[in-house]
Amino acid sequence: MHAEQAVELADALAHELNAELAARDAHGLRRTRRTLQSPQRARVRVDGRDYIAFCSNDYLGLAADPRLAAAAKSGIDLYGVGAGASHLVLGHSTAHHELELALADFVGLSRALLFSTGYMANMGVVSALAGRGDAVFADRLNHASLNDAALVSRVAFKRYAHGDLDMLERLLQATPARRRLVITDAVFSMDGDIAPVPALLALCERYDAYLLIDDAHGFGVLGAQGRGTLQHFGIESGRVIYMATLGKAAGVAGAFVAGSAVLIESLIQNARPYIYTTATPPLLAHALLTSLQLIEQEDGRRRRLRELILQLRQGLAGHALRLLPSETPIQPLLVGGNEQALALSAALAAQGLLVPAIRPPTVPQGTARLRISLSADHDAGDVTRLITALSNSA
Fold first, then answer.
1. Percentage helix, strand, coil, to 5, in the chain?
2. 217 is known as an active-site residue
């Protein structure tokens, strides 16, 4: 290829990309980044200004806890900074091993396996367990990582309407697939509602399917001592594959999958996002051992969360905009139009309150919303201030 042709192709691509970005702007869909200049707390400094933030998944307020910082520093002294290799070469440290044992015990399952991110965990599980000739059944409001995992696995990918168990049963009845896997968020990240896990498991038992639960937003928050959605529902089943992330309520980073011993051993052998990546820094695993202890011991954080959720819902009960039903820290305020959601978010930011506007394709068309995220690091005054600002905007 001549240099002139290469330049023309580059110019053509740049023109197409600019047109796509302009279309995003025209529909109020351009995403922008803010720069956080402080620790992740309820009160933050962003782009040179102080705010109360209602946009973090740090549900228990642990991300900036000094005890986790001290544990991370201790981890550096013990293990250094980088893992240096994949888990299957020489990157699997004592810290990783101890954390996997602790996580399995915490959620009441036989074994656990660490992943670098929740996205990688979901990709690893689905692609390792299902492929051509198999079928995956997914709630239509599942997280993108679950959908992408099904797509790359080349399975027959069937989606059912949100929470529609009758539709799921019809799909399960009709499938000729050799292996069937139902995948679902436990707490839906944009609606805040909890999946009907017992009913989903009953269908899996009836139609010889397995159930992958993504508990990214339930781990640390739901269940006794924050042990997650399985404990919340009192579920014990060999058909369940459990995934949770460690960068939300746990306040650090990473994810894990837990289940039977044969499941975990199979993932070690076959989950490509686990096999072909450098292990997470062991200092993070060391810090997470302290995080697990705090999650288990400090029920006051979850009590404060419940109190704040109740305060917000009562305070906005008569608001012109509707809070979606949710008993979790995710409290979505339905706005409808993209521009209206952006304008309301901007009006709150002008008053020192950060609440993100969530728009398609993250949520369905016509359901743009403010995603209010509460944390145990908030206090009643923070929530009162948000209620007042929203009430004045009605």
1. 45, 20, 35
2. yes
Give the span between the Cα atoms of 319 and 313, in whole angstroms: 10
Contact 213, 241 (CB under 8 A): yes
pLDDT at residue 31, rounded to an integer: 83
Q: Indicate the residue type of 360.
A: P
DSSP code string of 269-292: HH-HHHHTSBPPPHHHHHHHHHHH
Residue ranges of E strands in the chain:
43-46, 49-53, 111-115, 135-139, 156-160, 180-185, 209-214, 240-245, 255-259, 322-323, 330-336, 353-354, 357-358, 368-373
For residue 183, report the phi and psi dihedrals to the nearest 5 degrees: -125, 135
Which of the residues 96, 158, 248, 286 is marked catalytic? 248
Residue 343, pLDDT > 80, answer: yes
- Catalytic annotation, pick one of 56, 127, 189, 291: 189
Enumerate residues 6+ apart whose C-beta is below 8 A from 233.
197, 198
| Coil, strand or helix at 384 | helix
pLDDT in tens, 85-112: 999 999 999 999 999 999 999 999 999 9
pLDDT for 9 beyond 80: no
Neighbours of 361 (CB within 10 A): 8
Distance CA 166, CA 369 (A): 28
> Which of 342, 319, 323 has its CA nearest to residue 334?
323
Among 254, 195, 265, smallest CA distance to 230 is for 195
Is 393 tagged catalytic?
A: no
Domains of the chain, first to last: 32-60+299-393 (3.90.1150.10), 66-297 (3.40.640.10)
Beta strands in 246-329 (DSSP E): 255-259, 322-323
- Write out the two tokens for 47: 């782009």
- Residues 317, 321, 325, 326: is their CA dihedral positive or negative? negative
Closest to 298 in 3D by CA, of 20, 55, 67, 7: 67
SS3 259: strand
Question: Catalytic residue at 97?
Answer: no
Residue tagged active-site, from 96, 217, 286, 378: 217
